[in-house]
Amino acid sequence: MGQSKNVLLICGGGGTEHEISLISAKYITSKLSLIPEVKIIYLCIEKNGRRTNEINQECELRKAGEVFNRETQETISLDYAIPCIHGPPGENGQIQAVFELMGLPYLGAGPEASINCFNKVSTKLWLDKLGIKNTEYVFVRDSTDSSVEKIFNFFEKNKKDIFLKATHQGSSVGCYHITEENQIKEKLHKALELSPIVLAEKTNIGRELEVAAFEYQNELIITPPGEIDCPESFYSYKEKYNSDSKTETRAIAKNIDNQTIAKISEMASNAFIGLGLKDLARIDFFLLEDNTPLINEINTFPGHTPISMFPLMMENSGVKYEEYLRNRIFNS
Ligand SMILES: Nc1ncnc2c1ncn2[C@@H]1O[C@H](COP(=O)(O)OP(=O)(O)O)[C@@H](O)[C@H]1O
Ligand SMILES: [Mg+2]
């Protein structure tokens, strides 16, 4: 094994998924701790913008690829970074651009692939051109009469049952199920407060499946699909993270024929390669009642909480998370 490495674990970010990021960081810390050659350099971007280490000392990330501790005046030079942040500035390519400028190798997709996956409309435009099926949609950038009309017409065309989504959000923030005409304007305004583009999608009836896609030992591995079984038919923020959630998750979805599994795997692999992803992604699908899989979204830094599917699916496929991290860190 190679010599020891200083690995920056950066978390928080101050966005809507700040708390989830801290829980994910705990999981990743526990796995990094199993690698003796790794020294964890923890840095949290607090909600107030301060950067603090695990004992709350104020630190600075410096452009030479170093962490400077303002209290002890100590400088630690970094060898690798793990941006454990869901949503901005971790999943939208910002922090990756900073690492690129620093020349610091890091886990996960680069800035361009990150933003393309974070913006739900960009993802769909890419998927369309790559010939990968996704849900029918329209999108708008404002709430002018013509934009409202565009969504209204789409609503009428799709049996008065659609989803409106803020494009640059995750964890179901700014995502609304619309079944009444009078909800359209209000929810459009709300979604526009959260992101510059709003996506309208036809409501899919079927199952919600996810695969873990990850690179390991020079191979792209796509796990068999896991399933999110949500009785509310909408996997909301509350359902995702509350302890009294009624949603069941299964690391291996039941009763899916091999042909469909192969199709899902092919779509995930084409999306991973076609969108230029790196290291890891959780790719989410709808499986329609007629067995057609559609890609819903691509998460470039999926949740790593105790109930999150990504690490579970990876470990189920026979790769221990710490071995995966070791492989990434020491082959970067
Ligand atoms: N077109 C759709 N049809 C049916 N359900 C949907 C649709 N779009 C979103 N949902 C529901 O809303 C949830 C959140 O939407 P999603 O696009 O995955 O956004 P997020 O990035 O917030 O997870 C999904 O897990 C699903 O339960
Ligand atoms: Mg989702």
Summed up, what is this model?
This protein is α+β, with helices and mostly antiparallel strands.
Structure report:
With 332 residues, this protein is α+β, with helices and mostly antiparallel strands. It has three domains: 5-106, Rossmann fold; 116-134 and 205-329, ATP-grasp fold, B domain (D-amino Acid Aminotransferase, Chain A, domain 1, 2-Layer Sandwich); 137-202, Dna Ligase, domain 1. The protein is built from ten helices and 17 strands. It has helices at 18-32, 94-102, 111-118, 120-130, 145-157, 184-194, 237-241, 258-274, 309-316, 321-329, and strands spanning 5-12, 38-45, 51-52, 59-62, 66-69, 75-77, 80-84, 137-140, 162-166, 175-178, 198-202, 206-216, 219-222, 226-229, 248-250, 280-288, 293-299. Strands 12, 13, 14, 15, 16 and 17 form a six-stranded antiparallel sheet that branches. A four-stranded mixed sheet has the order 3-2-1-7. A four-stranded antiparallel sheet has the order 8-11-9-10, covered by helices on one side. The protein is globular and about 60 Å long. The mean pLDDT is 95. The site of adenosine-5'-diphosphate has 18 residues, from strand 9 and strand 17.
